[in-house]
Amino acid sequence: MLEITCSIVLFRNPVEEVRKTIESFLSCTRNIKLYLVDNSGEDSLRYAFNYPRTEYIFTGRNLGFGAAHNLAIKKCIGKSNFHLILNPDIEFDMGTIEQIFQFMANRKEIGLVMPKVLYRSGDIQFLCRMLPAPADLIVRRFVPAPVKFLFKNLLDRYELKHRDYNSIMEIPNLCGCFMFVRTEVFETIGMFDEQYFLYFEDTDLCRRIHEQYRTVYYPKVSVIHGYARASYKDTKMLAHHLISSVRYFNKWGWFKDSRRILANNLLSQSSMALRHPARFTRVANNRSYISYKTDTPLSSVN
């Protein structure tokens, strides 16, 4: 049994940038394997990353983010303890993976962990988020920058800027750039929903995991993310963003999304639950939110 597997989806990425990401993961000393899933039209990257403990998968066409990761995840189910979904523009120090592994190892109720994510400048990326409502998308994407200050409270609330990003938190919507997942989770809730070509697939996956496991922001370690925000610069990426947002809200509900309301409301209670050792139980209308109990607060685990 492999201890940790990892998948990175490639699409015409700069070789040196990807090399840093690969070497960051391969610095882990545990029993690991890396899957490089290449969505490019040609397999020129096959020979650029000839590393041990690495398998190259050439798709021949752009399958999209989630579908490409699923090719690797299928190979890992039942064969690894944890699976890391990793962007090709992430860097981290030796020991980062080990610390997350140790944090999750004996806490079976945790299904997903994301570390603190920083820009190359060292500034924090606010990637802990509420589950989105249509208004969040409209304001973030379409309100002109000169008047966005009018919606500062809404934007700050969505990105949880009022929370302490140096504290361990349980969050229903974590970014897909670095998702450290207990592999058995995929057997329970499924893999990425392939109706999303690009964007919202990570939100969809995280909220499904959150319904049955704890999804945790773990700032004891940090990674560097070369965040591109492509949909703000490219009309084709914007089109993918809009199509995926429509599919997301069609699936989960535009305005009557009771599970979104519940999950977001629980954020106001979670800091108390994570600070105290009392048993914490979550039940939601006997629907998809499965109750869970834990005897140890997350904040007590280093």
Short description:
This protein is an alpha/beta fold. It has nine helices and eleven strands. Mean pLDDT is 88; it is low at 271-295.
Description:
With 302 residues, the protein is α/β, with parallel strands linked by helices. It has a single domain, classed as Spore Coat Polysaccharide Biosynthesis Protein SpsA, Chain A (Alpha-Beta Complex). 34% of the residues lie in helices and 21% in strands. It has helices spanning 15-26, 65-76, 96-105, 134-142, 152-158, 184-189, 201-210, 235-252, 258-275; strands spanning 2-10, 32-38, 54-58, 80-86, 90-91, 110-118, 128-129, 169-170, 173-174, 178-182, 214-225. Strands 1, 2, 3, 4, 5, 6, 8, 10 and 11 form a 9-stranded mixed β-sheet that branches. A two-stranded antiparallel sheet has the order 7-9. The protein is globular. It starts with a strand and ends in a 27-residue tail after the last helix. Residues 271-295 have low confidence and may be disordered.
SSE class: alpha/beta
- Terminal CA distance reads 26 Å
Report mean pLDDT, rounded to a whole number.
88
Strand proportion: 15-25%
Q: Order of helices and strands, N to C?
A: EHEEHEEHEEHHEEEHHEHH
CATH topology: Spore Coat Polysaccharide Biosynthesis Protein SpsA, Chain A
**Tally of separate domains:** 1
- CATH C-level category: Alpha Beta
CATH superfamily: Spore Coat Polysaccharide Biosynthesis Protein SpsA, Chain A
Number of helices: 9
Name the poorly predicted regions: 271-295
Helix coverage percent: 25-40%
Number of strands: 11
Oligomer: single chain
Radius of gyration: 19 Å
Shape verdict: globular
CATH-level-2 architecture = Alpha-Beta Complex
